[in-house]
Amino acid sequence: MAPERPDGAGASLTPLDLQPDAAGPPSEKAPRRPGSGRPQLYAALDLGTNSCRMLIARPQGGHFEVVDSFSKAVELGTGLKSSGLLSHRPMQRTLQALRICRTKLEHHGVRRMRLVATEACRRARNSADFVRRAQRETGLRLDIITAEEEARLAVVSCASLVAPDTEQLLVIDIGGGSTELVWIDLSRVAPEKRGNAIMAMHRGPFMRAPAQGHPHVVDWISVPLGVATLKDYFREVDDDAARFALMSWYFEEQLEAFAPYRDGTAHEKFQIIGTSGTITTVAASYLRLKRYDRNKVDGLVMNSTQVDQVIREYLALGPIGRRQDPRIGRDRHTQIMSGAAILTALMRVWPTDRMSVADRGLREGLLFAQMSRDGVLDLTS
């Protein structure tokens, strides 16, 4: 069982009430598929350092229904740290994955889509050439988004998990090549409006100035270390426990520029929401799931002690035990400890009794933003 799985058709996420996107006028009614009475389909594709993942969904009342999905480990960022370039074989794997995505998009007749690339393409010197090649060979046009937009969309996807009494919120997204952290002060937003206010953050850049009725982004940071890149820094350390400790402390050092790290204040009404394959894997392990179940994992609340307990179990297993553990899965066992090192550092800095696990992220945020912009979600649902 590997938590990094394709989402099943028919799965749905339920956001809170949405308002039409300020970037464009809302549609008078939901776009319809040509020759069909059903709502138009939307697609979101996330090409990261490790994986190429896509969701195809239709608006359904106040949420959306996933009708098809794709997830493939392409390891696009392999060799990037040493060369600064995307390498031939990873690009070939990625192009093959994009061809499969193109086939799915054509099969479903999708016309509304957002296809984005993140950290690996942001860093590589030859990423513009790769994007042009991808469009030429697959017909798909990738948009290399900024770290801020990536963080903003991850926040949007988690809006419905915000507890009503939360005043200080930290959203963390542990990716393959980078980790995004966003600290949001919700104390100026009425409790019943906090989730909706976060959902509206897809409209534009983070609001950094405090304003009544709006979330205040105290600070955000994109650390250029994810499960793949952090592991590469300590590849030559043979001892499993020593490597884990070094990764965790090294990641914490990168937080020096993050204002809440320097604050040191104990915060009440504080919540962490974590979205990533690492965090859903930890949650599935904590629940002792023999088969991954998104309905049990998404929205699960864990505390720092429970997270630490699972990670200690991973360390006790060692590399061979982790490879054989069905809770981790063969696709993730080589990177689970680098992700766990990041999570341990964050729990060390901000221990909490309330970390909400989010089996959602950039793709879901892209879908919410597109549907909101088109005004196709039924706000009364």
What does this structure look like?
- The protein is α/β, with parallel strands linked by helices and 381 residues long.
- It has 14 helices and twelve strands.
- The strands form two sheets. It has a six-stranded mixed beta sheet with strand order 1-4-3-2-5-6.
- Helix 2 packs across helix 4 (127-138), helix 7 packs across helix 13 (336-349) and helix 12 runs antiparallel to helix 13.
How would you describe this structure in keywords?
6-stranded mixed β-sheet; 12 strands; 14 helices; 39% helix; alpha/beta; 381 residues
Number of helices: 14
Strand and helix order? EEEEHHEHHEHEEHEHHHEHHEHHEH
> What is the strand tally?
12
Strand content: 15-25%
The low-confidence parts are 1-30
C-alpha end-to-end distance: 34 Å
| Share of residues in helices | 25-40%
- The largest beta-sheet arranges its strands as 1-4-3-2-5-6
Q: What is the 3D shape?
A: globular
Quaternary structure of the protein: single chain
Q: How big is the Rg?
A: 20 Å
- Sheet bearing the most strands, described? 6 strands, mixed
Overall residue-averaged pLDDT value: 86
Judged by helices, strands and strand pairing, the structural class is alpha/beta
